[in-house]
Every structure is written in C-alpha cells, then in structure tokens.
Amino acid sequence: MDDFLQLDELLSTEEKMLRDSLRRMIDAEVLPIIANAYECAEFPENLIPKIAELGLLGMTLPVEYGGAGASKTAYGLACQELERGDSGLRSFVSVQNSLSMFPIYAYGTEAQKKHWLPLMARGEVIGCFGLTEPDSGSDPASMRTTARKVSGGWQLNGTKMWISNANIAHIAIVWAKTDEGIRGFIVDKAAEGFSQNVIHHKMSLRASDTGELVFDNCFITDDAYLPGTEHGLAAALNCLSQARYGIAWGAMGAAQASLFAVQLLG
Ligand SMILES: Cc1cc2nc3c(=O)[nH]c(=O)nc-3n(C[C@H](O)[C@H](O)[C@H](O)COP(=O)(O)OP(=O)(O)OC[C@H]3O[C@@H](n4cnc5c(N)ncnc54)[C@H](O)[C@@H]3O)c2cc1C
User: Does the predicted TM-score (pTM) go above 0.85?
Assistant: First the structure.
C-alpha cells in the first residue's frame, strides 16, 4: 500500500505489527467473502471470534476489564484496516468499542464493568447503541423514548431507529428521557417488552446489521441504570465523539481500498 504522507515512520513497531497482521487477515478472510455479504445484506458474524482474538474489542481499555490496553493510534490503524475490508466491519467494531463498551467503562458501576466488559472483549456479548429515533436524529434532545421509575427498576417505552448491530446484539445501551433528563441504561435482549426488527433494503453499509429497537412497557431492573450518565445527553454525545475518532481512520481505509481498485483497472 502506498504511504503517500509518509506516516509509517510515525508508528511504533507494535503498531506496525498490529496493522500488518490485521491487513493479512483482511486480505485472507474478508476480501474473498465480503462482496457476497454485501450483495446478500448480511453481516459476516463468523468473523466475530477472529476479531476478538486479534484483541480489537475493547482495544484501548485496561487489561483488568479484558481490554488490550493498546494505544489510540493502534485502534485507529485497526479501524483503517477493517474499513479497507468493508465499512460494515469497521462499523461493527466502532459500535462495540466506542458506543457499547466505552459507555459501560465511562459511566458504569464497578460491578457493571467487571460483569460486561470481559465478555464483550471476548466477543461473547455484542452491544448496540440506541440513541436515534424515527423522529429524532440530528437533534437527539427531542427523543420521545421514556424511562419511568417503577418499583425495583425502570419501565421503558419508545422506538429507536437505524441502530447498528441491533439484531446481533445481546445488550443495548439505550438513551431515554426520565423525570430528571436523558439517562443511559444497559438493556438485556432478554428483557420483557424489548424486541428488534431488521431494516432491509439499505443502499449502503449493506454488510452491516442495522435495525430498530422497540420498547413496549419494557421492565429493566435498577442495576441496568448507568449512574455516570447523570449529566444527560452530554454522556451520549461523548460516546459519539469516541466513535467519530475511529470513523475518521476508517475513511482512510475506504480511500485506500478505492485507490487499489482504481490501480487494478489500470
Ligand atoms: C447505517 C446507519 C447506521 C446507524 N447506526 C446508528 C446507531 O448505531 N445508533 C444510533 O443511535 N443511530 C444510528 N444511526 C443514525 C444516525 O446517527 C442518524 O441517521 C443521524 O443522526 C441523522 O439523523 P436522521 O437520519 O434522522 O436525519 P435528520 O436529522 O432528519 O437529518 C436529515 C438531513 O437534514 C440535515 N439537518 C438536520 N437538522 C438540521 C438543521 N437544524 N439545520 C440544517 N440541516 C439540518 C442533516 O444534516 C441531514 O443532512 C445510523 C444511521 C445509519 C444510516
């Protein structure tokens, strides 16, 4: 791959080794199957154990929570290589890292962190992030989903739309309006009154799982509440800022793939 900006010399030996081993994995295991996955609009779930094995889930989190303790640059390089394979793969890793593990790490209790993060780092539990709604996208403060305090927990009502990993996820980080403002919750897929629907016929990100989350008098226990989200929407927006970092690196990978395709055409 051409290094037009001579960025390689800025990378550590470990960062280059990680990028190169991921590059080999993408070439061997992603490029041969991804065109079909894109055509069939299917996320290649069979790659999740491999992605976890390479330490790409919870990559920058401390080792004590199952993370790899890697540098932000190493994470960026991983996003670049993943997106060179397909935007859906980078999107999967962004959602697991920045939008699911990060809010638990940043806003969760010690018990929530110890329970969920190692499982998520191993790819045994997949997360999704429910902020957007059918009538609330660019302006998430206008969300209608509510979380009402009830005895022993919370009752969720509302719908989240365009949610990456919605159907493959075991848990959802859900943002909802309470009497005190917007708060975040960890909602288990098994919670009563919680269902997911696939969004079909996308024109882009076709190899990514996208869906709708529906909460119909969904009861979750008190330990689902993320106490660090007491500052409201700022917590959700901070997660999006984390995700944007990986997406920016991913755009470089998409550009590399485009350049390679043009070179192939001669
Ligand atoms: C494939 C995919 C995956 C996604 N994954 C997730 C996810 O995992 N979790 C999640 O919560 N969300 C997710 N989203 C939702 C995404 O974050 C929203 O699409 C985004 O916030 C924009 O919201 P919207 O689609 O409702 O567009 P709108 O808010 O309706 O905006 C439509 C257009 O109007 C413009 N616009 C809006 N308001 C203004 C204004 N005041 N002034 C000028 N222009 C304006 C926008 O820039 C945009 O061009 C995903 C979306 C897609 C397509």
Answer: yes
